[in-house]
Amino acid sequence: xxxxxxPPRSSGGPWAALRPYLEKESLAAFFVGVSSGFPYAMxxxxxxxxxxxxxxxxxxxxxxxxxxxxxxxxxxxxxxxDGVRIPLLGRLGQRxxxxxxxxxxxxxxxxxxxxxxxxxxxxxxxxxxxxxxxAGATYDIVIDAYRIETLKPYQLGVGSGMSQYGWRIGSAxxxxxxxxxxxxxxxxxxxxxxxxxxxxAMLTGLIVGEPPRHVVxxxxxxxxxVWQSIxxxxxxxxQRSGAWLVLLFILVHKIGDTLANLTFRxxxxxxxxxNDEIAIYDVGFGFWAYLAGIFVGGILYARMxxxxxxxxxxxxxxxxxxxxxxxxxxxxxxxxxxAAIGFENFASGYGGVVVVAYFSALCNLQFTATQYALISAAxxxxxxxxxxxxxxxxxxxxxYVNFYLLTTALALPGILLFWYMMRGGMIDSALGTxxxxx
Length: 438
What we know:
With 438 residues, the protein is mostly helical. The chain has one domain (18-435): Growth Hormone, Chain: A, CATH 1.20.1250.20. The chain contains 21 helices and no strands. It has helices at residues 15-18, 24-43, 45-53, 58-63, 69-73, 78-83, 94-114, 122-150, 156-185, 187-194, 199-208, 223-238, 243-252, 255-261, 264-270, 275-304, 306-330, 334-361, 368-410, 412-424, 426-429. Helix 16 (275-304) packs across helix 18. The radius of gyration is 21 Å and the shape is globular.
């Protein structure tokens, strides 16, 4: 096995390249991606802007990024999504029933966040943000498993791209809608309006149905069986050749990128950008750059293969942080903001296709939800911890320019480690059944 299973040969002119994007499985990946993206936006850039406009200090604002750590802890309850059957709703299928339950939980959590007022007291806001994180993380567990099990091996690249299209549309649309509505009717109305973005994944599950590649776990009883259902997915992953290095790569590859991304809105606020400017350049212009990155990522993934395309993605994400150091040095500049956001989003879009395809291919279909939760949680945990505990202080101590230069340097270990694994054949040896034929 030298790489993820290739697509079947096809002919038919220029439309042949478009056909994989219109397949039922790829469209399903797109629509569940829309719902996956919006909870992140609600407690990410949107909440950062809300807190900054309420006059909350930088250290407190960046500490709110610790709410994202709930996403990193989701691995501890992902096994429930894999193995617990929901009464009554379970008749619709394991994945579909959990899509519906988690979707309702996300709607309730976002509405709850809408009702709190940060200026009156931060404790209620912290609790509400964490609840959105718990609900959103659970939704992510189900959505990721649904996407991987719906896609065939040869569709992992295209499907990951479509999922990233959906994620970006959900995140950007919710973020832009929140900014525009908040400027006119207040933040409470903005959050309530955005709760509707939970619906696409729920409707997709009802229309498309249960994934054909879902492996039904044998029902077990007793504490020993429960313990085995928890540790089994991790044990299976770690027994693969090169698994420890793969896990180390997952942990370190995105530290710089995560640390930078969760502080952008602080930079924009200090440079004096208005809500409308942020909506136009960060959300709007960045959106199209992200889509372009996904498009190029899909092409290069097909032509270069998984390993080389991932290596290129790591280099692009590293260099993208330099653009924000330049923006910080230049000051308030709409053209500078457009350039920095454009490059960063292009790199993120490209990386989203190939890196997500790689992580998806690592999963064993018997433990899809739990193993992908482990991988996706590990991918950003260090960056989020650093952001929540040190980012505000680093920015105040180093200044924005040196801070973003530091995030660039932190991306280098991931590049070197992936290159080493490529040369040692560990990328192929650690792939799971989701990335193999049969």
